[in-house]
């Protein structure tokens, strides 16, 4: 997995870059299909805007933004948003798979028909 860090109109130190790489790689614990992470900082006066773009296999990109005064704090907030998006996506995928299959529905319908037939035959006797 690649982690790319870019800065517009400013720069960040090596320590912050190492911190960003370490934290970004932890996204793999939430979603193992992450292929690339792009972190972009846009410095505008005393304001910093952090943008995180996460590419994943078989899924559209996850995107989060946060604006503040400190690059590391902005990154942390944006990363938290990405983590929530990934968790929500995984829950949706897992819930979808938990839906009753057609086989289970057919079995339930057959059982209901059988019970109704038994009730009707009991009423006739």
What is the assigned CATH homologous superfamily? Ribosome hibernation promotion factor-like
CATH architecture descriptor text: 2-Layer Sandwich
Biggest sheet details = 4 strands, mixed
* Secondary-structure class: alpha+beta
Could you say which overall geometry the principal axes of the C-alpha atoms support? rod-shaped
Strand content: 25-35%
Can you tell me the CATH class? Answer: Alpha Beta
Radius of gyration: 25 Å
C-alpha end-to-end distance? 72 Å
Tell me the count of domains.
1
- List the helices and strands in order: EHEEEHH
The whole-number mean of residue pLDDT values reads 85
Count of distinct strands: 4
Descriptors:
125 residues, alpha+beta, Double Stranded RNA Binding Domain, four-stranded mixed sheet, 30% strand
Explain this structure.
Helix content is 50%, strand content 30%. By secondary structure, it is an alpha+beta fold. The protein has a four-stranded mixed beta sheet, covered by helices on one side. Strand 2 (34-44) and strand 3 (47-56) form a beta hairpin. The termini are far apart.
């Amino acid at each position: 997995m690649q982690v790319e860090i870019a800065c517009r109109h400013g720069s960040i130190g090596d320590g912050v870059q190492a911190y960003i790489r370490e934290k970004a790689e932890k996204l793999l614990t939430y979603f193992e299909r992450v292929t690339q992470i792009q972190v972009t900082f846009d410095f505008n006066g005393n304001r910093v805007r952090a943008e995180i773009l996460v590419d994943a296999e078989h899924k559209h990109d996850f995107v989060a933004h946060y604006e503040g005064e400190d690059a590391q704090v902005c990154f942390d907030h944006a990363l938290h948003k990405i983590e929530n998006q990934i968790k929500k996506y995984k829950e949706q995928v897992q819930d979808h798979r938990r839906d009753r299959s057609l086989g289970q529905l057919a079995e339930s319908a057959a059982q209901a028909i059988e019970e109704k037939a038994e009730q009707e035959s009991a009423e006739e006797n």
